[in-house]
User: Fold these one by one.
Assistant:
Number 1:
Amino acid sequence: MDNLFELAETCLHNAPVDEKLALTHQAWQRLQNGELSLDQGKPVAAITQVRFPEKPEWLAPRFVPKRKLTAPGGVAAFFHAIAHIEFVAIYLAWDILYRFRGLPDEFYQDWLRIADEEAQHFELIRAHLQALDTAYGDLPAHGGLWDLASMTANNLPARLALVPRCMEAHGLDVTPGIIARFKKLGDTVSISILDRILADEIGHVERGSYWFSKVCRQQGREPEAEYRRLLAQYYQGGKPKGPFNREMRIIAGFSNAELDWLETQSP
């Protein structure tokens, strides 16, 4: 298979977990080697055709049990939740490059690289879970991230605003505090995994910011005003809750004006 979009369809629609991971890594390497076509002739399938593994069971967020890190099984439950986020993030990266066509080659290169990095994150966490006598799928998870993808299947600026610039950006806000909690526990393995994910996620959010601004301007819209409008339209409560990590969000492409708005108007 020598076409990027056909590979994307395979990963989104029917690839088992290990095959999906292998295809993702191979696709990124092959694209760098000039071995994949970006011909966009084949029609895009509806997002309802995307398929996930039977496990884990998906529940509404309020029904997913919560455990403290210090409780029995708490670390495993935490990393199972993170594994699920990273696994869905592989889908999100594949889906955005598959679903939205007619963009510069750089767009597809960026999101395939991100898919590859999300797959690396998932593999790191899955190995860590195994050391904790837990497998991905053993615990329930929620589908909030994919709900946002479904809501924005026909709106690229909304997808960019809600996924990298809301949900992934939230990771920049909360992960440093979580790392500090693992430092108190003396858990160096967990710290190293979270440090790696955090470093990569800054770049993922930055790419979301870059393409959001570029697409908005191509559509004749002012990016900061459009960000506020899309959050009011799609985001429950109208915007994310703080506190916000200004330093990391600035690196990741947020403006001071956006952060002032988020902070002063945050519920």
Note: The chain has a mean pLDDT of 94.
Number 2:
Amino acid sequence: MADFDTISKTHARAYPMDFVNHCLDFEQDDVTFVQLITPEQPTIEMHQADMLIKVALNGEEVLIHFEFQTTDSYDPEMALRMAGYIIRTVETYRLPVYSSVIYLRPDAGRRDPGYYLQDRAKHRILIEYQVLRLIEIDGAPILDKKPTGLIPFTPLMKPPAGVDAEEWLRRCIQTADSIDVPNKPAYLGSLAVLGNLIYDPETISNIILEETMQQPSIIEYWTEQARQQSARESTRKHIFEVLALRLQPDTAQTFKPVLEAIDDLQHLEQLHRAAILAENVEDFQRALEANGS
């Protein structure tokens, strides 16, 4: 399974203002980029937000928070997760936060209310955020404007009326191929990987072969992405198995969110060795902290 989350975050970090300008209703406002915020590494207690961007909105510094979600979240539910991200971000940076969750799969996010609510007398808590489902975003204006960061996501967006899925995918690939980027095979490969969420891989491959001059490089990139993801998933599985054998299974599962947030294969391999050597939970926790997790 491709690492959709990693690809999403990579493009958002490379082209942050494409996401700000085209995903938020700031068209009539003066918005300028200030910096990317790199949150502290995730821990058991605090998970890392996907994307934080500091911008000047009409002269005031604010934070833009994007969370990428492939499927629905149930444990915890997305509203609770987003409330946690927002409160921790406000507490840490003391700035206004504009928070959004972006759902990649067409069937995901339909039941996300866009808020967390505790409705108790004299203890009411309401935290709102924006829900963005790519399938509900009109893709044609995105293709027309060609924001570099968003084009790889266009196969997941809503096509124009009367345009079937295959023709829409073809237009997305043609547009991506027309954009000048330093590493075209990786760029087109990202579109192909994200497109796997709704399109048959063979269909994507065939259209890429027909429409671009980057075929061998794209297939090589695509294959390498799949190999890397398979290796990461296998290493995580081995870590969980070792922890479950050496520690209590329930305790081992508390590390799952932290390990799933680590994309570096070498880091995971180091943690696998640490799990084998750990005598208790504290030993493995120290290994996580020593490795910057």
Note: Confidence is low (pLDDT under 50) at residues 41-46.
Number 3:
Amino acid sequence: MANQKNPYEILGVPKNASEQDIKRAYRKLALEHHPDKNKGNKESEAKFKEINEANEVLSDSKKRAYYDQTGAMPGDHGGHGGGNPFAGGGNPFGGGGFDVDFGGGGFGDLGDVFESFFNGGQRASSKRKKAGPYRGNDMETTIKLKFDEAVFGTEKELVITKLDRCEKCNGNGAEPESKIITCKTCNGTGELRAIRQTMFGQVATQRPCDMCEGRGKVPERTCTHCQGTGRHKKTDSVKIKIPTGVDTGSTLKVTGRGEAGPLGGENGDLYVQIIVEKSKEFLRDGYDIYTEKEISVPQAVLGCEIPIKTLYGEIKLRIPSGTPSGKMFKLKDYGVQKINSSDRGDHMVKVTVAIPSKLSRKEQELYEALLKEKK
């Protein structure tokens, strides 16, 4: 492959192309130049081989990184000897082609080699199940609620943009009236097998087919609306029920309202993060409510009954005589109703005694008389 063109140019993708972009470009070109569709056409056969070689490099993160760093195809011993660790006879195992990966986690597929060695030179493998449609991605969004909406619950409508199932092909990726056929690249197995020569003999390896992504089936003609992916971007309206008692930091899960999976895969879930506006009247701590009420000196000394505004309306609170400033009173079960429960928190009322800074003449006389009385 020393004289091969740039693999990005072969597949017609930019150097920063995503994994999905590469897969999409490969499938399109492979279908176009597949030998079964171009029987006897040597040029298409050569092009098909070139496409597969380019895809083999770009679909493997390590091989792609090696090419990006050196400009040489992995295994190309000509022209770029300085960049390829096996160039110029640098492979310590010679022409046997022992495939060792020195990057990241150690020796790559060496476990496959030992497995085949201890199984008499023939790798033991069980028939793997074909990959089914992949589940779509979960999504996350944020919603702001008013204080009362969080306390008592409500219903909200969200508008989100996501990858949803294609209406034209109903998610299967094929043009209407076009068939879903057996993948000709893997013959319906959903995987590609390769034989490698190692120091222990031949080793068979397998990986998911790039053409059908492990499903074993492909559309005869890809849907022109979604380019064969089975989904496209769409604005979706979602009504969600907000239960009583949610607070900032609460997360609601809406099952099946995330992104659709490719080629008919089920939808992921939608996670809604809650942010609650603060109240001007109440301070909330978990399911408990806190308020402060000011009373006069005579009320604190003699005792009284004062109105208290709660989440559920106004009630009367009895203040006993001799109540000091800062005294806390509990209104049991007047707090926030707990999520998925009939239980409630409490309402805590802090009483502060107001000391007047200015007195009328009559008040002055009364306080002076009281002071003389106490002497």
Note: Residues 188 and 216 are 4 Å apart (CA to CA).
Number 4:
Amino acid sequence: MAILTRWLSSRLHKVVMMTGVTLLAGGFVRPLVAPATAIPFSLDSPVAAPSLPIEGESGDQFCPTDLPAAMDAIVGRSQFGTAAWGVEVYALADGQSLYTHNSQRLFIPASNIKLLTTAAAIYTILEQSPDRLWTFQDDLNLVNRDSHNGRADELLRNIGGQSRVKAMLEPLGVDPDSYVQADGSGLSRSNKAEPSTFVALLKAMYETDESELFYNSLPIGGVSGTLRNRFKGTVVQGKVRAKTGTLNGVRALSGYLETDDYGTVIFSIMVNQPGQSGQTMLAAIDDMVLTMAQLEACD
């Protein structure tokens, strides 16, 4: 209780939330995908920041054992009384989950489903035409960084559909029963996935020879893609790479956070709450990321 009280007290002195989007360069010879279809981008788009960012010091830091109380305090905010939260935070340094909340429950993941589509596409190309793999970066950027729905759905069709995704990802340790994929983009509300699905995928992709290709396709907080206006001016600007997800009543963020004192943290955060303000959900998700950034190794 003392830890939670001390943490909440320190947070009262800071205003931390951001939201947003940007583009990185790219020109590319495309291996599998036809020209872009009529559906341009997802609902993952730039919006005004709900409050001012933190500048300067990262603030009080805390041990991994303190993280659950801090995260539970965000999940338990009064405005989320009707919300369904799914969260998993995994530390590469420890090789274990630091925090879970409904991490093996199915949620609508919105555009986070694109992570499954693009990872499976990488391994399909690697299997069928490995010499074409490194010309694939711009397509990955378009789907993950810029969240292009038409290209994502087309990519799924071109690699052989949902069965191909399961066949490519199961050997990586992604449980085929932990998600239901209805499309390549995440626009369908019939998509369902567990936070553990994305943590397993992100961990596997981080540890493979193709990690750089996948990692570089993700939006960067405060810098690029659908995260360009989020985390700007905070201690995690440039340190978080993650896929956003946006539908009415749905917000999601799954990716990597490079902390100053605790190495790389993999996370998946999803909230489903029909009728809730998107800004409110985004603010809470971003607060979780800023909270994770305060982790430090403790004896």
Note: Residues 240 and 296 are 17 Å apart (CA to CA).
